[in-house]
Specification:
By secondary structure, the chain is of the alpha/beta class. Helices cover 33% and strands 15% of the residues. Strands 3-4-5-8-9-10-11-12 form an eight-stranded parallel barrel, surrounded by seven helices. A two-stranded antiparallel sheet has the order 1-2. Strands 6-7 form a two-stranded parallel ribbon. Strand 9, helix 7 and strand 10 form a beta-alpha-beta unit. The model has no long low-confidence stretch (mean pLDDT 96).
């Protein structure tokens, strides 16, 4: 019997060996200051290499900042200089060598930048030392205790668009085959999308067309420098979970159709993260219906993410056509070889290094 979860999947000319993919998850383990700020370390290599040997079909390296002030924390990866590019080349090469498609997410944290690493206590890192003043579409703080961000000028918005393109070029040079634009979780692009965080009155605020303008300009800039034969993904929060004041599932479907026209090949569908009194009904696969709706109403390929933990659950999502792939997050932190285990449980096969072949 065929197991859909372990069938190959092709986007443009790129074929991914299976539908079990690793979601981008920050490790907060890069160099923080000095000439090596944002540079990947041995931790990153070991972390991603183990998931490749564990059988993941595609790995999206964590949110990687397009500018120093675009980091979520001072310990985030960056792609604004060539030293950072070189530090990622070894990771991309190892993934590819062992049968996993190397991808990377590029983003800008906006008003959620300059925060502490989770294990150091959440909250902002103050200016001075490793911290800095965050920027945003509007001078609206993310939460109590966070600084009021500096409102971006139109000139700076356009400069940041160019920085996304520069980061995509560096990602390609480092050997990545997929680039994902981070538009979710209340970071800069998501801040522009949502009326909860975007209070502008110029061409980048107000109407749906204006609030989506920055995102589409970034997509166009990235697509212009990314090879035609390779896919570009976009991660979105399908809803802010804020009644009558945030980004909505209806807007997500409308926006997904535009993204498809602008050259996005797959929508990575998450939710939340933009602050406010959000009430998120956490349950197994709770975000899958958002992905399924986008796929059904726009035809844009989608990946589902969020509390997908069991092999049969993942197989059902893909086999039923609710999503084209599943992105595992915390479950792959708990079990680096989850794809190989799932393949055994479902009676399928996935790639593994020769050194591990006796354990299949």
């Amino acid at each position: 019997m065929s197991v859909t979860l372990f069938e190959p999947y092709t986007l443009r000319s790129l074929t991914v060996p299976n539908r079990v993919w690793m979601a981008p998850m920050c490790q907060y383990s890069a160099e923080m200051t000095g000439p090596n700020a944002g540079v990947a370390t041995d931790w990153h290599f070991a972390h991603y290499a183990s998931r490749a040997t564990g059988g993941a079909g595609l790995i999206l390296v964590e949110a990687t900042a397009v500018a120093p002030e675009g980091r979520i924390s001072p310990a985030d990866l960056g792609l604004w200089n060539d030293t950072q590019t070189e530090s990622l080349r070894r990771i991309a090469g190892f993934l590819k060598e062992h049968g996993t498609v190397p991808g990377i997410q590029i983003g800008h944290a906006g008003r959620k930048a300059s925060t502490k690493r989770p294990w150091e206590g959440r909250g902002p890192v103050p200016e001075g030392g490793p911290g800095w003043q965050p920027v945003a579409p509007s001078p609206v703080e993310f939460a109590e205790g966070h600084p009021v961000p500096t409102e971006l000028t139109v000139e700076r918005i356009r400069e940041i668009t160019g920085l996304f393109a520069d980061a995509a070029r560096r990602a390609l040079d480092a050997g990545f085959q997929v680039v994902e634009v981070h538009g979710a979780h209340g970071y800069l692009i998501g801040e522009f999308l949502s009326p909860h965080s975007n209070r502008r009155t110029d061409e980048y605020g107000g109407s749906f067309e204006n609030r989506t303008r920055f995102a589409l300009e970034v997509v166009d800039a990235v697509r212009a420098v990314w090879p035609e034969e390779l896919p570009v993904f976009f991660r979105i929060s399908a809803t802010d979970w804020l009644e009558d004041q945030g980004w909505t599932p209806d807007e997500t479907v409308r926006f997904a159709a535009l993204l498809r026209e602008h050259g996005i090949d797959l929508l990575d569908v998450s939710s939340g993260g933009n602050g406010g009194p959000a009430q998120i009904p956490l349950s197994p696969g709770y975000q899958v219906p958002f992905a399924a709706r986008v796929k059904a109403e726009t035809g844009l390929p989608v990946a589902a993410v969020g509390l997908i933990t069991e092999s049969e659950q993942a197989e059902k999502i893909v086999a039923n056509g609710e999503a084209d792939a599943v992105l595992l997050g915390r479950e792959l932190l708990r079990d680096a070889s989850w794809p190989r285990r799932a393949a055994r449980e479902l009676g399928a096969e996935t790639h593994a290094p020769s050194q591990y072949a006796w354990a299949i």
